[in-house]
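Sorry to interrupt, but I need a hand with the structure work. Leave the record below and I will have a look:
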Amino acid sequence: MKVIIYDLDSRYDEMIRAGCDRAFAADGRYAPCQGCFGCWTKHPAECFMKDRLKQICRLIGQADELVIVTKNLYGGYSTAVKNVLDRSIGTSTPFSTYRGGQMHHTLRYGRHDLWKVIVYGETSEAEKETFRYLAGRNAVNDGFARSEVIFVPNCEEVEALI
């Protein structure tokens, strides 16, 4: 299943939804993670907050390919996308294991294929390097076999990459 998380405005909704199985608009109309770890222990993969992100762990956990469309924010995800990713900690468990010679949390949903990030907006070389590293580490932590980061100058060029 291909899942897209995006922070583009609503005029791009139809185009995004046509390019995937499931889409989630990171529009900021949800609460940030409270750090309670309830999605790890009390009610696995489900957030206690009753908003649009309540089931985001399950959506991301079922993705073979996760595509994130985000504006560059100093070499990182936009705040709206970062809030979505913060609320998805329940895709793993509180238990630890070794993957690739490093300690990581045990995956709740198993392995996935591609963590792809499409970054739009002005991006310096240092920010590109930071973003590639960040996306690569996110992919490893969430059990994705590979990561890819593509930089475009503006959001109008995103459609060809979906």
Observations:
- The radius of gyration is 15 Å.
- The longest strand covers residues 112-120.
- The domain at 2-161 is CATH 3.40.50.360 (Rossmann fold).
- Residues 45 and 58 are 6 Å apart (CA to CA).
